[in-house]
UniProtKB/TrEMBL annotation:
Residues 1-21 form the signal peptide. This is Endoplasmic reticulum resident protein 29. It comes from the Eukaryota. The keyword Signal applies. Keywords: Endoplasmic reticulum, Signal. GO terms for biological process: protein secretion. Residues 205-298 form the Endoplasmic reticulum resident protein 29 C-terminal domain. GO terms for cellular component: endoplasmic reticulum lumen. InterPro entries: ERp29, ERp29_C, ERp29_C_sf, ERp29_N, Thioredoxin-like_sf. SUPFAM superfamilies: ERP29 C domain-like, Thioredoxin-like. Pfam families: ERp29, ERp29_N. Gene3D superfamilies: Endoplasmic reticulum resident protein 29, C-terminal domain, Glutaredoxin. It comes from Paralvinella palmiformis.
Length: 306
């Protein structure tokens, strides 16, 4: 019965808003006469305190949130629009909750039907940030995967400043390994390879030949020549044309490294990247992109050994 009464009041004030200015779909205008009648009817009430005729990006984001919340019967989205001129409409409501003109827009979340002790929203006014804020502080909405986050000790904060959190799960270990490095391809690749014992290849790369490239940089001059010969021989054994061409490029790269040294990698990467940006057939673009991937893999192997 109480929920039904709340819904009746909701629709009444939605109609009433038609005569007072802009209609925000899903949001109810509140004042000193309606605030204490409506807010207690809902499990959670998100209220924006703002100037009498708000506008701009923040207001647009709030409107998106209001529309998204229409289907949630336990959530009220409302506005208290305050005038600082004339009769100073709704200024009393602003004063009641300590909202000053300099605070506009100020967003507060009222919980469990209480009209006191609201939670202040302090993040960026964005529809997704607002949704996360509501879910965190109330039982409204589905807290996606919160059980998994709690299970593995991942804390969810208002600003998500400690996210993302990456964990590596290994088949023979009960506890995952938490990643604490930089969020770069190079660092993540090393993490998966060293802690997981896995190969994480770049596009177009071949695991067996990546290992040969890695061993190439560990070897002395004479050993490098032998690794080059082994790589060339293995490439010739491959029947599939596309894979054969990529494997041959590993051997060709080693040959150039023997002739020109490690500086060849940066120069060749720059040259091929520039070529790939030109007007080319799809086949030629693929070939060049394959080479970029293989050269990058060589560079990462070189970095690992420096």
């Amino acid at each position: 019965m109480e929920r039904m009464m709340g819904q009746v009041l909701f629709y009444f004030f939605a109609v009433f808003s038609l005569i007072r200015g802009e209609v925000i779909k899903g949001s109810v205008p509140l004042n000193s006469g309606t605030f204490d009648k409506l807010v207690p009817k809902f499990k959670a009430a998100l209220v924006k305190f703002d100037e009498m005729y708000p506008y701009g990006d923040k207001h647009k984001e709030f409107k998106k949130l209001a529309e998204a919340a229409i289907s949630q019967p336990d959530l009220l989205v409302g506005e208290v629009n305050i005038a600082d001129w004339g009769d100073k409409e709704n200024a009393d409501v602003g004063e009641r909750f300590g909202v000053k003109k300099d605070d506009f827009p100020s967003i507060k979340l009222f919980l469990d039907g209480k009209t006191s002790d609201p939670v202040d929203f302090k993040g960026k006014i964005d529809v997704n940030e607002l949704k996360s804020f509501i879910v965190k502080y109330s039982d409204y909405g589905q807290k996606d995967n919160a059980d998994l986050a709690e299970r593995f000790g991942v804390k969810v904060t208002d600003d998500y400043k400690d996210h993302p959190v990456i964990k590596l799960f290994l088949r023979d270990k009960d506890d995952p390994i938490t990643y604490d490095g930089d969020y770069t391809l190079d660092s993540l690749r090393k993490f998966v390879a060293s802690d997981g014992g896995l190969w994480l290849g770049l596009p177009a790369c071949i695991e067996e030949f990546d290992k040969l490239a890695k061993s190439f940089f560990l070897a002395n001059d004479e050993e490098q020549k032998e690794i080059y010969k082994t790589t060339l021989a293995k490439a010739e054994e491959i029947k599939d044309k596309d894979e054969h061409d990529r494997a041959r490029y590993y051997a060709k790269t080693m040959e150039k490294l023997l002739e020109h040294g490690n500086d060849f990698l940066d120069k060749e990467l720059k040259r091929i990247t520039k070529l790939s940006e030109g007007k080319l057939s799809e086949l030629k673009k693929k070939q060049l992109n394959d080479r970029v991937g293989i050269l990058t893999s060589f560079k990462l192997s070189l970095k690992d050994e420096l």
